[in-house]
Amino acid sequence: MTEKLLPAKVRLLPLLVLVIAVAVWYGLSLLHVFPQSAFPSPLEVAKGLGEEVQSGRLINDLVASLFRVTTGFMIAVAIGVPTGLWLGHHVRSRVALLPAINFFRSLSPLAWIPFAILWFGIGDLPAIFLIFMACYFPIVVATVSAVSSIPSIYFRVARDYRFSGIELLTKVTLPASAPQVITSLRVTAGLAWLVVVAAEMIAGRDGLGFAIWDARNGLRMDLLVAGMIVIGVIGVVIDRVLIRLTRIRSVRWGYER
Amino acid sequence: MSFGSVDVFCHLSLEISRGEFVAVVGPSGCGKTTLLNLLSGFLKPSSGSVHCSGRVRMVYQQDSLFPWQTAAQNIALGLRDLTSEAERERQLKGMLRLINLEEFAEHYPHQLSGGMRQRVELARALAGDTDILLLDEPFSSLDYLTRLRMRRELALMLDELPRTVVLVTHDIEEAAQLADRILVLSERPARICRELHVTARRPREPTHPEVVETVHHVLTELGLVAQDKVIIPRSVS
Fold first, then answer.
1. Interface pTM (ipTM) of the complex?
2. Residues of chain B found within 8 Å of residue A160, distances taken between Cβ atoms
């Protein structure tokens, strides 16, 4: 983490990039490279965003999407990490199950959308199901690989000091793989956020994905871009939140050497 | 003991009495670490038997502290079997004082120097009710001056907490400074080709006459001293 050593001014660089990006966008919209109806200007988008905030729809959609992502992701973590730890320890189960897990991991979660609707209808449940399907398998694979890269000396010491069973799993395997698992959670959370938008487009009555889809249907490209901006910003915020996990004292070792 | 078709030891017979400090030296790859693994029960002999009376702890060549635990938590691993919380706390404090790391109790291993980490490793292995301490080149990754200091500290720790010790090392001087008895192993299949006793009280200076004399004997045994002149080592590291 050499970023810490940089002067405070450097931290403002992302802001500069933002200003330049908006300026380029504004310039392009003034030049009419694309028809005005297909290329909303920053001003129109800002106005649209303001409307959405005032009507309360944006907050409503945001809360709906965040609720689905958090729930689906948490369930996937709560089941996926233990599955990974268990498979990491048991060679036979790993050999038996890993091909199946890789099979499901390779399926785009969007392929499940028809079933999600048939089984769970419209609303929160299908989206949560799709997020779970998107996150669970990558989390398992990442955890298995984190466990397999634990130096064997730790297990030897664990044996010397009589760790076994659940205690071995929670007090040795889990903390020893935690730094790598946390890194994979950051990646997977990004995936979850991608999926919720897609899921809500088809199986939603609200949420940011639905908002985008609704804007498209109403030919309101300004609202569509406003939705995109909110989605991107939340994606950054989610990663910022998860990066806090790497500051936990007992996992610092994994990032500092 | 053999791995596949490779015989590691042939007719190796060894008895170590309670409280004795035995050092094992010998050429690289002669099976010193295998000997420790047999003693710790990590390996089973392919023929013959190993009898150990007492609880065994090992200190390994590589860093083996749990990096996700503080120095204090790592040492507390050695006290896991104590049922009384207060007693654990008391002994932990005592160990930290013994290795002079009270201020670093809440530091994680990656925040400690190599010498400090090694002290924590020793404290972890010595903590609690153990009888036998197996040391597999515990100081090999330290610089010479730190190594000298660690030898002294180990000797003082053992004064405080007497244990039966088997030390495997490349460092002949270390063996002569620390051990009551030094076993010189031959090339594979290894047998004990020389046994030396050192009686001077610990901690011994590296320049103590008995230490110097013992080093000389071991070097001679390993073929590194010819006609009172030291020749360039061939097979010993």
1. 0.84
2. 40, 57-58
